[in-house]
Structures are given as C-alpha cells and as structure tokens.
Specification:
4-stranded antiparallel sheet, 8-stranded mixed sheet, Gyrase A, domain 2, 2 domains
Length: 430
C-alpha cells in the first residue's frame, strides 16, 4: 500500500456544469480546470437531496441500499424531524472503511451523515449545537470529534462558526478546519462539504448575482486548500476531486400534501392539531415526497386516489411511483409505498393544516426560490472536476452516474471498494 497517496474530495453543494463558465475565469478553479479532467454532468441519485447524495458519493451505492432516503429521519407525525446526522444509519460500508482497512488515514469536515464514524480519524461532522446551552466544542465532541481534533482544529477556528452554520461564515469554518487538518495531519483521504452555493440558490433562484458571488467565494477557499497542500508538502502527491451533489429548480409554490390527504379522508387531525391517525401520510423530500401507508392492504385504494390527483394536474406532482417502480428504475426503496414527483415548479411541505398552497419563503430549504429533491434527469446537472498525479489531464467524459464517484476516489487511493454498485471512471484516470 502506497501511503504517499492523498485524495481530497470537495463537494461544492449545488454547483452545476453551467457554473464552469464563471469558475474557469477565476484563479484557483481556472488552474484546476486547465490541468485536470472533467465529467461534464453527473447523474445524481433520487431523491436529489444532500444527505442521500453524499452518502451515495462515499459508498458507491444508490439510496435504497445505503438507507439514507431523506435528509431527515422518518418521524412521520412530526412536521419537522431531526436530520440524519450520524453514520450508524448507513447500512453499507464506505470509502472511509476501505481506506482504514488498507492502513490509510482518514478525515472529513462536514461530510453529511458521518457523525461518530468509527473509521474517520479526524472528524468534524456536519452538526451543530441542538440547544442554546450546548457549545460548539461540546456538539462536535458529541458527534465524534476526538479531543485532538477539538484542540488542534476546532478550537483555533471556532470564532468563524461559534454556534450554528450560517453562510458564508460556516463555510469559512469548514475550509479553515480542512486546511488545518491538511497541515497538521496530512490525511490520505479528506472529504469536505461546503454549502454556500446551495444556500444562495435557495434564497435567490438557480442563477443570480448572489450565486455568482458564491462562486467567487468557493474559488477563494479552493485557493486556501491548494496553499495548505503546498505548505504540507503533499500537493504533488494529491489527487483533487471537486464534485457536487445536485442541481436545483426554481419553484413558485409549496403544497401541503398531508392537508390534501386529510381532505381525501386518508389522514385524521386530532383536537390538539396533531396527527391522530392515518391511512397514508407523506414525508416531504422537497421536490418529491415519499408516502407511507399504515396498513399495506390500503395500497390499491390509495394508489387510485394519488393517480387521480396527479392526472388532475392541480396538486403539484406529475407522477406517482409505486415502491416497485422506484426500486427498479432508481434504486430507491424504504418503508414507503409511493413516491410523488414534482411538476417542476411545486415543492412540498409536511404540513397537515391549511392553507393547501403557500408562496415561496426562505424559512426552510424546501420553500425558497429554488430547491431540489427532484428526479435526477431534471434541470441543471452536477459536475465533476479532477486533477492530480493519477488523473489524465485533458480527459473529458460526457456523463456518468453518481455511484461511480466512490470507486473512482478509491482507485486514485489504490484501494478496493467491495460493496459498490458503480465502477471507476477509468477514462479520467492514469
């Protein structure tokens, strides 16, 4: 095993191929694009949400198999649920497990669903204090950061994000911690996840001056990473992958699916305003939704109602996938019975009270000017850029599935990833 190999994966949340026209004019991205290889578009997994996508990006399997079907846990009768912060929800092994088994060192900063990962040596999970009394250091210790990481990485940089992730200061914290890890520990594998571009798209739409400003920010932070590699003396031994998880679609309204199901007699709201009982209940994945049945015997009746609603064209979804169709076509499965796909301009909430239709707002990523969770073939597409000693300079590939990314990272490290459904993108590798 060559322990002088290094791989850094930067997932620029919601960056799309269309952004490269701007990024290639900037100093850091311009240098990487000139020297590197590209996969123009990556076909994401379904739903195109951050946590399902990032888990596929590190495991090389689709959503049903790794088990992270939503950003949130499936607490069906809660309008808002905790997020899938922790690795114990992931049902398969990943590239961190494979790297550790090969004797390599591993690190992650804000990579989703990695909390308490047993095989990440230097870990700062995407997590933040869950109550006003909890400090930044306490929350990262709780989610798996070692005392060494708290002392050497979190504490010197905590002034940048000293309670909750707010953009862009939270992203400045992510990059500062990543740079400190590179200089201090020189990990063989480091995966990091900034999210400013994603937030700016939610706030202002898919393409806007704010998004362009965000592209300039990520170029500045990429420059910091490149300088840290120089300082650590490992830049020439490092393969750098810059990827993204999904695009976004502009939306015009939010529909309360559970309020609709209540009016169809499929959900009952009690006198306390909470769900008292249900035949069917929807869990939003923003531009799609997963519908759960209390009793599988009601499948055909509920399916007929949902199909009629889709055909009416009024309720925001254009297709009803059965569980079998979602599994066979997209590798998406779980305990739900149906998946509802957006009409392209409607997002969904978990609300079970009127109003049925609400305008966009920025109170939640599901409800902004733009969002995601839609079918992966819709809208602007994520992309992949790579450069380094094991990358074929100038190589260009039109399109590959997201599940091919983890095997490609593994090949650059010189390790095997045994459980993957994807295959390495050999066209961009030396």
């Amino acid at each position: 095993m060559d322990k002088n190999r290094h791989v850094i994966v930067i997932s620029e949340d919601a960056m799309v191929y269309d952004d490269l026209d701007t990024l290639r004019q900037l100093p850091a991205f311009g240098e990487v694009l000139e020297k590197g290889a590209q996969v123009k578009t990556i076909r994401a997994v379904y739903p195109t949400l951050t946590y399902p996508c990032h888990t596929s990006m590190r495991t090389g399997v689709r959503v049903g198999r790794h088990g992270i079907v939503n950003n949130e846990k499936s607490n069906l009768t809660q309008e808002k649920s905790p997020w899938e912060w922790f690795n114990d929800a992931v049902k398969v092994s990943d590239i961190f497990d494979a790297a550790k088994a090969a004797g390599l060192t591993t690190a992650a900063v804000f990579w989703p669903a990695t909390g308490r990962h047993p095989h990440i040596d230097y870990l700062i999970d995407e997590y933040w204090p869950q109550s006003p009394g909890e400090t930044t250091e306490e929350c990262f210790a709780f989610s798996g950061s070692s005392p060494e990481v708290i002392e050497k990485i979190v504490r010197p940089n905590r002034h940048l994000m000293d309670w909750k992730r707010i953009h862009p200061c939270g992203d400045a914290f992510v990059h500062a911690c990543a740079c400190s890890m590179i200089r201090e520990f020189k990990p063989n594998l480091l995966m990091i996840h900034p999210a400013n571009v994603d937030e700016y798209r939610h706030i202002s739409g898919v393409f806007s001056p704010l998004v362009t400003h965000g592209l300039h920010e990520i170029d500045m932070w990429l420059g910091d990473i490149l300088r840290a590699l120089e300082d650590a003396g490992i830049r020439e031994q490092t393969d750098l992958f810059i990827v993204s998880d999904h695009g976004q679609l502009n939306i015009r309204r939010t529909v309360a699916l559970n309020a609709l199901l209540a009016e169809k007699g499929l959900l009952t709201v009690g006198p306390d305003g909470q769900v008292a009982d249900y035949v069917a209940i929807a869990k939003s994945t923003a531009l799609s939704a997963q519908v759960y049945l209390k009793d599988p015997a009601d499948h055909d009746r509920v399916y007929a109602i949902l199909r009629r609603m889709a055909e009416d064209g009024l309720y925001g979804f254009e297709r009803v996938y059965t569980a079998r169709e979602a599994r066979e076509e997209e590798g998406l499965y779980g305990h739900f019975s149906f998946v509802l796909e957006t009409d392209g301009y409607t997002s969904f909430s978990n609300a079970w009270k009127r109003p049925l239709v609400r305008p966009t707002d920025n109170s939640d990523y599901k409800f902004g000017r733009a969002t995601h969770g839609h079918h992966p073939d819709k809208g602007p597409q994520p992309t992949l850029i790579a450069c380094g000693p094991h990358i074929r300079a100038g190589a260009m590939v039109e399109r590959r599935p997201m599940i091919d990314e983890a095997p490609t990272f593994a090949r650059a490290l010189g390790i095997d990833l045994p459980e993957t459904e994807g295959s390495a993108i050999e066209e961009i590798l030396q």
